[in-house]
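User: Second chain of the day. Same drill as before.
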Amino acid sequence: MTQVVTRFAPSPTGFLHIGGARTAMFNWLYAKRFGGRFLLRIEDTDRERSTRAAVDAIIDGLAWLGLKWDGEAISQFERAERHREVAERLLASGGAYRCYASQEELEAMRAQARLEGKPMRYDGRWRDRDPSEAPPGVKPVIRLRARQDGETIVEDKVQGKVTFANKDLDDLVLLRSNGDPTYMLAVVVDDHDMGVTHIIRGDDHLTNAARQMQIYAALGWDVPVMAHIPLIHGPDGAKLSKRHGALGVEAYREKGYLPAALRNYLVRLGWSQGDREFFSTEELIAAFDLSAIGRSPSRFDFAKLENMNGHYMRAMPDAELLAALIKDMRYLQGGSDMEKMLEEKAVYDSLAAAIPGLKQRAKTLLELLDGARSLLMPQDMTTEASAIISKGGNIYLTELTPLLQNDSREWNATSNTEVISNYATVHGMKLGQIAQPLRAALTGRLTSPGIFDVMDVVGKEETLRRLAAHALPQVFRSLGSDATDKLERHIEESTKPNNLEEDQAVRERINAALSQQGSHEYITPSGATLTLLTELAREGKLAAMSQAYNALKVKYPENAQYVASSVPAKLTNGYFIKFLNLDVLRVVQWEQKNPSWAQQSITALDNSETFASEIAQMARRIADNIQ
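Assistant: Same format as last time:
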């Protein structure tokens, strides 16, 4: 039995397309399945578009995917002399002829074809003419003398029997006028000389197959077995393109996909064995055959690829997954910094310890790296994590920090679980209510491995540092009967004007706000002042806010109460809330004329989207004192 020989023959005009990677996979698997050889040929005859960088990208992409070819990669361009030799042989045998048609004549043929709504076909005008009739100064091309009657039949292993009328297949060019061989000739000669027995490629080459079969016939060579596989489409059913997302294999490495997972997914795009989804490489080799490839295009589903990749990651032994992460780390966004950190054994050991927990929540190496960075490197906090802390979580962090700091116990997951569980029990809370603020403070995110595993990996010193960074400021801790005095002194120090120039500019803005008149809320003095206070809060000018609010209290006392009670529902700046909420409490304390209004203000503080937890605590204590 003849040894099976397949080949992958990409053009180096860009990256290794994901569709090309699947074609390479099919060729590689088929050769492995039957103990054959898988060859690589770089079809670089288009010298204007072919680049060394593209060749390197193709070779690197195949190597990353684990598709090792047999022997050296072959350059089609370097075989040009052999292609010319075959063309001359056809010319000598009468299987080809010289064509002297001018560019003007060819353009006239194209124009006529467009007028008739047909594809351009060379009309064979030099097929039987004597070369002595050639016009002077015209360099001829060499054309195949193709059959004009009958049919060319492609017995395709995927598409079945495909018939082409020979009258629709014109005399194609074999050698250009400058002596360069065309793609059609070069492919046939190279496949023959390389001993290729099976050509597996995209079905966009199906018409080429019929043309190339005529060249094989003219040369008297055996035609390889052909299998033309459907192209890959995007999720919307259109041909896969840049608008659908990543196209080059290198982009999938940068996104953190494992080669084994990508191989598995690509094979399942068009080939199947029942409903089975997951195959090891050995299982794919044992099962793969051309008869199981469908004729319809497959749709590339990025979510499905991601889920498959996550499955592979969770199934990998921890040490292998860590090795895969480190191997591809330089290609991942943010990986360079982590790569340098891993030179320290302590950091490497911490990452190794975190892998079991991290891989349960990651679907790509990029997500795995992101999780590792959140544990081992300071991270910007997400909006959701920040909200968890600002809406009461900082109280828990403040109270837990000294409990965790106890030096009389060991620092490990078991010990930390006991401390935090006891705290939750004492305060009548579920463990999850405590875990989320801790997770937010330690990782900057709301998803991570188990929080006690995180604390173990991060270590005691760094855990306490991160918790302290998000706990309440020292001035708000251990509030007692003198809470109001402490807060007033803090705000008084915080609201001193920075300079006279700023003070004058603020006065002008305040006067403009207080001079507003009208019936609509936002053009009254109170509405205008509330807007001004919002602007000053965003500018971080606490002293200016103090000036503006005090000026409103002097001129419009009742409006000041409205502004103060409106603030929790309308503003988000932390200092602004602390300052004005405190003033609401002053009103409650000093006047005590309207307990119902006072209680409404306190309720507003509790329910507000911009709730400042430390002020709410103080509000409850003051409310208890005045009832």
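The chain has a mean pLDDT of 80.

User: Great, on to the next one.
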